[in-house]
Amino acid sequence: MSAATDLRAVPAARPRRGGAGRQHHAGWLTHVLLGLAALVSLFPLYWNLVAASHSGERVVEAPAPLLPGPRLLDNLTFAWNQVDMGRALVNTTVVAGLVALSTVLFATLAGFAFAKLAFRGRNALLALVVATMTIPPQLSVIPLYQVITDLGWVDQLQSVVLPSLVAAFGVFFMRQFLIEALPVELVEAARMDGANSLRIIWHVVFPVARPAMAVLGMLVFVQAWNDFFWPFIALTPDGNPTLQVALAGLGSGNHTVDQAIVLTGALVSTVPLLLVFALLGKHIVGGITSGAVKS
Q1: Helix H or strand E encompassing 185
Q2: Which whole number is the average pLDDT over 212-234?
Q3: Which of 177, 198, 265, 266 could bond to 250 as cystine, CB 3.0-4.6 Å?
Q4: Sign of the dihedral defined by the CA atoms of residues 242, 247, 249, 253, in that order
Q5: Is 271 helix (H, G, I), strand (E, B) or coil?
Q6: Which residues lie below 8 Å from residue 180, measured CB to CB, with a gap of 6+?
């Protein structure tokens, strides 16, 4: 009997059940726990909608209302007109979009440099960048406000956008991702093929870093959308506000604050973020889990 016949006589090895390739199926208990967690997470948003559909007096009564009321459209109209909510919504979209785009771009470039380029003082400079995250932003308010005052940028959107063009967290985040996701051999092969730095960044770095760029962009967009401290100092509610600054003056009058109107404004500022998550949620989750499981 030949060796080939012996090999054909050996039965094919069956794939093992279990190990890294095993698929886990969630049981009923997992579904119940996830459902409860979803309900608990969504309840504040639901109650915000309920409170926005009642009068201010009804919202502060005990027990609090748990079912929607009839005043949602009236409250929306009042809130929209009281603080020029339309302009604030446009301003916030512009600010958050520009800050997210610039942070993703500059953080990716800096992260690639720290991860894959060898230059003198790289580790010391990275440590300095990371150390800036320990500085409270309140310490820079006075000198920063003096700068925008001298430039004549008070109550202008560039006073909010320019100080936030890049963040140390974004640089560190992209550096950590590119260390594992981008093989140095790929960069060296591109250089041997004659690609310059710009072509390497555009055709090699950006495609590899796309999942992390999506996650970082979403995080920065949400942070810029909800930012209140510095915009409240640099902008005015009656001039050129963002949504959070406009909400600070919402519902006030006659020495009282209408909580229903305030919560109506909060609902308006939350809906765009929910739409972004609904449209980009798949890409965000894919970016978060990218690289979590190695083949």
Answers
A1: helix 184-192
A2: 92
A3: 265
A4: positive
A5: helix
A6: 291
Helix (H) or strand (E) holding 256, with range, is strand 256-257
> Is 257 in a helix, a strand, or coil?
strand
H or E element: which one contains 252? Answer: strand 252-253
The SS3 call for residue 270 is: helix
Degrees to nearest 5, angle at CA 17 with 15 and 21: 85
Tell me the pLDDT tens digit for each residue of 152-167: 999 999 999 999 999 9
Q: In whole angstroms, give the CA distance from residue 60 to residue 185.
A: 63
Find the length of the chain: 295
Put residue 2 in one of left, alpha, beta given phi > 0 → left and psi -120 to 50 → alpha. Answer: beta
pLDDT of residue 251: 63
Percent of the chain with pLDDT over 70: 85
Residues 6+ apart with CB under 8 A from 177: 111, 209, 212, 291
* Mean of pLDDT values over 118-144: 91
68 sits in the region (left: phi over 0; alpha: psi -120 to 50; else beta) called beta
